[in-house]
Structures are given as structure tokens and as C-alpha cells.
Design goal:
The complex is a heterodimer of chains A (435) and B (105). Chain A is of the alpha/beta class. Chain A contains 17 helices and nine strands. Classes of the chains: A alpha/beta (435), B alpha+beta (105).
């Protein structure tokens, strides 16, 4: 699903590889050859793994990553160096978890990375593990993911100082959440838990555990080789480097793209060939993200802070362009139904609250209930968030609440008891488990 | 400050019966807790509510009034979302806090 980078610069082969130029970094290999790199090609392009002479010496790596300003690419954008430092400060021998689960159905960036450049991810995991003196590195992906095969292939050829193993995780939405992943590795139960203790203190097997998104580790692997200055040569001060984004919906070439941090939302849509029809709204961040109105949203920069100002969150950098003829409320109702079904069922406000708001939205969409339902829905928005063990309910509320102002015109029609043409439409975006 | 372990809580509602000044219930029977520190005169009542909870879900967080709640990151792909991070690193030193819960008192 990966596509061209606009203005790709040719990569120069030389005995000491030059740092990737002003073009794709993680996807450089794919852009050049159209195929995943084998180990030789990987070494030619990126050089050997710059391991410290001794294991358990994390300071150099932490310094480099801190200077680079790398922020996690798994959704929260937490500074990676601080996480490394927290794990390094633990007393017991730590462990590295590379999270490639990507349970967000609309996101394809981690799958693309794992299928096209798994060696970069493994490099990053090994570099972090070696620097931290970790016992092992564990790479996680969902059961049935194609990436599992690519990972196994890549690992078999390697000879790393730290053992790597691959773990297949149940394909549930909340299973890839940090505490759920650790809970699964510890007990086989893939549901989130409450913190404390934090993973960096006590995670897998009670050890300090570094949990990083696979894309974060791939960037780390390049920072270790080419340095902080190189990493910061693209992107913004807030979000240095590049990031992988998934663009889907009413665009010419849906797919995964690699763009500099801070790229405007409109420019990101252009990477995917631009809009193919009238679009009034874009869903930003994934199914638990927020709707933003177009054209106002087109200037918003793809950074955590920039999108927050615009009323959304970067999340895992998914952009879904909704065709104008669709009913945004109906589509949101479909997503809410999915999110409600994906509750782990552990916490009351989520277990009961999400189906309740999904039903409220569904009623509104078919023109039933009017203002009473809208008021009830709004009250529920205030009561559900921040009362669960994880932020799953918060995301669902965020999505639903963002739909009301963005699709205000549709809402007004529905409140008058009128269905719109789009109300009966099937979901436009992939919903696992539905035909 | 009162806190509830949302996973342990099953919505039995004894806390709201015993401490209505500080605990309400949502429409599904789950506790809505006052987020301010518990006033001194209500501490004995709070302790009775904590002891009465059949799943030991209710706790009293003593010490700094900072968040110690599990879901302080509202980003769905954050700590609670998918492989994320630890927003709690910004909160005040946890060594200052003592937790009083269950039958400990």
C-alpha cells in the first residue's frame, strides 16, 4: 500500500553509506527498488549496526536520541529518550518490547514498515536492548499479520548480541495498549490493567520494560547511525524527523506515506494524490480520533501540538477523507458501534457507556428521539471519560463529540426527524469483523 | 482524595450509600467521586465506605493532591492507547503519597 514520495532524491551507494538525503528515510529502500531489502542491501544502504563496545551502556544512545528529539510514534508522542532513561534507571535487567500490533483498523503504517523494512525495526530494538543491557527484545504483531512472516525471515538471518523473539497477540483493539501487551505476555490475558506499576518500572516478568512503537525504533536505528543533527534536518522543532502516515478515503492514491513532521494536513492529502471528490471533513488520528472540517483543517500541521490546537490529536497519523455525499454522523455511528464492541468489558463506564452513546447516535441518524437524545448524549459525553483503566472510552467519546459540530448541518436535519441519503450507507472505512 | 480501581469496581454502590456527600452514581450504577481532598470530618465515614466495598475497589489517596488516577492521558493512543508512553512522569514525586485502602486501616 506504499506509494511514491514527492520529490524523492536518489540514494547514493558508497562504502560508508551516506545518510538518507531529503527524501524518504524509513521507506528509502522500498522507493528505490520496489521491494523489501534483503540483509545485504540493508547493510549497504544503512551500514552496520553501531553497537557500543559493551552492553548496558545506555548514556551515549540516550544522549543522541535526546538531542534528536525523537518522540514516540505510537500515538502519545512521548519523548523516547526519557522513556529509555526511565527503563535504564531500573534495578533489574530490562526488556525491550517493539509494538507492531497496530490495532487501529484504519492505520497501515506499522504493517507497511514491518513488511518493507523489518530490519530497521529489528536494528532499533537490538540497539535499545543492547544499550540497556536487556535480556531480550520482543517484537509483537497481531495474530495472522503478514508482518509475522517478514519478521521471522529477517530474524533468522541475523546474528545479534541480544536474542529477539516474535510474539503474536490477539487481534483485539485494546490488546495493543501498553499495559494490555504486558499483561498478555505475563498472563495470556490481553486486557489493559491499571497502573501503577508503570511498564518502565515493572513490566514483563516484573522487569523494567521499554515499550516502543516499531516506527519509533526504526527512527532510533537511523539516529544511532547518522546522528541527531541529521534527524533534525527535516521536520519541525516540535516534531523533528519524518513520520509515517496513513491516508485513506476520498483520495486518489490511498496508502502509507513518509512525510516530514509539521507537514500541513492538506499537503499530506496531496501526497496521496489529492481529493477525488468533494470532501467536507477529515477524520484525524484514527477511529478514536477527531473529525475536522475541511477546508479549515487543511492548514493544520501534522504535529501533536499543532493538531491539538486545531481540536484533534495526531495519534497514529491516520487521515481519512470523508466524501461529502456520505453522512458523517452515520459513519461515526458505525465506528462507535465497533468501538463499543471492542471494550474489554472491565470497567462500567466503558462497558455500558459506549454502547449507550453508540445507540444514541444511531437513533439520531435515523431521525428518532430528537433533542432529548441529543441532550442525553451530551450528558454522557461528560460522564464517561477518565473513568476507565485505559483511554479507550475517552477516544470513543472524543470521536462522537467531534462529530456533532463538524456535521452540524446533518445533525440539524436529523433532529427535525429527517433521514439523509447517506444515513443508510454501509461503513466507508474498514471495520474488522464486518463483511 | 477518593479513588476507585475501575477494573475491580462492579458497581455495587455501597460507597454511594455510605458516603453520599462525596460519592454519586452514574446511570449505570458506577461511582462518581468528588475530586477534592476528603474533608477531615468525613474521613471516618470514608474509611467505613472503603471497608464496605465488596471488591476493595475504593481507596483513599493520602498526601499530595496530584493526579494518581490511571487514565490521566486523554490521548486514546496514549498510555491507554496503544504502545504508548508514560504521561505520569510529569506528576509530583509519588514517594510523597501513601495509599490507604481496603482493610489496611
Amino acid at each position: 500500500m506504499t506509494r511514491a514520495w514527492a520529490g524523492c532524491a536518489p540514494t547514493i551507494h558508497s562504502p560508508t553509506p551516506a545518510p538518507p538525503g531529503a527524501g524518504p528515510r524509513l521507506l528509502a529502500g522500498w522507493h528505490e527498488t520496489g521491494a523489501p531489502a534483503d540483509l545485504d542491501e540493508h547493510r549497504r544502504r544503512y551500514g552496520r549496526l553501531p553497537l557500543h563496545r559493551r552492553a548496558g551502556r545506555p548514556d551515549q544512545l540516550i544522549e543522541k536520541v535526546a538531542a534528536a528529539g525523537l518522540r514516540g510514534r505510537g500515538g502519545a508522542g512521548f519523548p523516547t529518550a526519557r522513556k529509555l532513561a526511565a527503563v535504564a534507571a531500573g534495578r533489574r535487567r530490562p526488556l525491550v518490547l517493539a509494538n507492531g500490533c497496530e490495532s487501529e483498523p484504519a492505520s497501515a503504517k506499522d504493517a507497511a514498515l514491518l513488511n518493507l523494512a523489518p530490519r530497521l525495526v529489528l536494528d532499533g530494538a537490538v540497539l535499545a536492548a543492547h544499550a540497556l543491557g536487556a535480556a531480550e527484545a520482543v517484537v509483537c504483531a497481531h495474530q495472522g499479520a503478514l508482518a509475522l512472516h517478514a519478521l521471522h525471515q529477517a530474524i533468522v538471518e541475523r546474528d545479534d548480541p541480544v536474542p529477539i523473539r516474535v510474539v503474536a497477540v490477539p487481534p483485539r483493539y485494546v490488546a495493543s495498549e501498553e499495559s494490555a501487551l504486558i499483561h498478555f505476555l505475563n498472563t495470556g490475558d490481553a486486557r489493559p490493567t491499571t497502573t501503577p506499576p508503570r511498564p518502565s518500572e515493572r513490566g514483563v516478568g516484573g522487569r523494567p520494560t521499554l515499550v516502543d512503537n516499531v516506527e519509533t525504533l526504526a527512527h532510533l536505528a537511523l539516529i544511532a547511525r547518522f546522528g541527531a543533527g541529521w534527524f533534525r534536518s527535516v521536520g519541525t522543532a516540535e516534531l523533528p524527523g519524518t513520520l509515517l502516515i496513513t491516508v485513506d478515503g476520498a483520495v486518489r492514491r490511498p496508502g502509507v506515506y513518509e512525510v516530514p513532521g509539521g507537514t500541513a494536513l492538506g499537503a499530506a492529502l496531496q501526497c496521496a494524490g489529492g481529493l477525488v471528490e468533494q470532501v467536507h471533513a477529515v477524520l484525524v488520528g484514527g477511529y478514536a480520533g477527531s473529525w475536522l472540517a475541511v477546508p479549515e483543517a487543511l492548514d493544520a500541521p501534522l504535529t501533536h501540538e499543532g493538531l491539538r490546537t486545531a481540536g484533534a490529536a495526531l495519534g497514529v497519523a491516520v487521515l481519512l477523507a470523508l466524501p461529502a455525499e456520505a453522512c458523517g454522523l452515520a459513519q461515526t455511528a458505525h465506528l462507535l458501534r465497533y468501538l463499543a464492541a471492542e471494550s474489554a468489558g472491565q470497567c462500567g463506564p466503558c462497558t455500558f457507556g459506549l454502547p449507550a452513546i453508540a445507540t444514541d447516535l444511531a437513533e439520531l441518524v435515523v431521525g428518532r428521539g430528537g433533542h432529548a437524545v441529543l441532550e442525553r448524549l451530551t450528558r454522557r459525553f461528560a460522564v464517561i471519560p477518565r473513568r476507565g483503566a485505559c483511554a479507550h472510552p475517552d477516544g470513543a467519546v472524543r470521536l462522537a463529540a467531534s462529530a456533532l459540530p463538524v456535521f452540524a448541518a446533518d445533525l440539524a436535519e436529523h433532529l427535525r426527524g429527517r433521514r439523509c441519503a447517506g444515513a443508510g450507507h454501509q461503513p466507508l472505512f474498514p471495520i474488522p469483523g464486518r463483511r | 482524595m477518593l479513588q476507585v480501581d475501575p477494573i475491580a469496581c462492579v458497581g455495587r454502590g455501597l460507597c454511594a450509600e455510605l458516603l453520599p456527600e462525596l460519592v454519586g452514581l452514574d446511570e449505570w450504577g458506577y461511582p462518581l467521586l468528588d475530586r477534592n481532598p476528603v474533608p477531615a470530618e468525613l474521613i471516618p465515614q470514608a474509611r467505613r465506605a472503603i471497608t464496605a466495598c465488596p471488591t476493595l475497589a475504593l481507596r483513599l489517596q493520602v498526601g499530595s493532591a496530584a493526579h494518581a488516577e490511571p487514565s490521566s492521558n486523554t490521548d486514546p493512543h496514549g498510555r491507554h492507547g496503544h504502545d504508548s508512553d508514560d504521561p505520569d512522569e510529569d506528576t509530583p514525586d509519588r514517594a510523597q503519597e501513601r495509599t490507604v485502602g481496603g482493610l489496611a486501616e
